Amino acid sequence: MGTLKRSSKPFALRAPAIVAAAIAAAFTLAPLTVSADETCNSPYISKLIKGQEDYVYVWALGMEGLGDGQDKLVTIDVNPNSMSYGNITATHSVGTRGEAHHMGFSDDRRFLWAGGLDDSTIYIFDVRANPAKPKLIKTISNMPEKTGFVGPHTFYALPGRMMVQALSNSKDHGGATGFVIYNNKGDFVAKHDMPTDNGGDGYGYDIGINPAKNVMLTSSFTGWNNYMMDLGKLVKDPEAMKKFGNTMVLWDLKAMQPKKVFNVPGAPLEIRWSLKPGDNWAITAAALTSKLTLVKRDAQGEWQAHEVGTIGDPSKIPLPVDISITANGKGLWVNTFMDGKTRYFDLSDPMNAKQTYEKVTGKQVNMVSQSWDGKRVYITSSLLANWDKKGEDNEQFLRVFDWDGKELVMKMQVDFIKNHLGRAHHMKFGSKALRKAMVEQDESLAEGAQSGAARVARSE
Amino acid sequence: MQYRARQAHSRSFQRAHGRALASLIALVSALALHASDRSAPATLGLPEVTWPNSQRASPAQIELGRKLFMDRRLSPNNTMSCAMCHIPEQGFAANELATAVGINGRSVKRNAPTMLNVAFNQFLFWDGRETSLENQVWQPILNPNEMGNASVQAVLDRINALPDYASPFEQAYGARATRESVAHAVAAYERTLLAGGSRFDRWFYGKDEKALNELEQQGFAAFKRFGCAQCHAYDEKSALFTDQRFHNTGIGWAAARNDKTYTVPLAPGVSIEVKESELASVSEPIPADEGRFEATRNEAERYQYKTPSLRNVALTAPYMHDGSLPTLEAVIEFYANGGIDNPGRDALLKRLAITAEEKRALAAFLRALTSEDQREWVRRARAE
Question: What is the ipTM of this complex?
Answer without folding.
Answer: 0.88
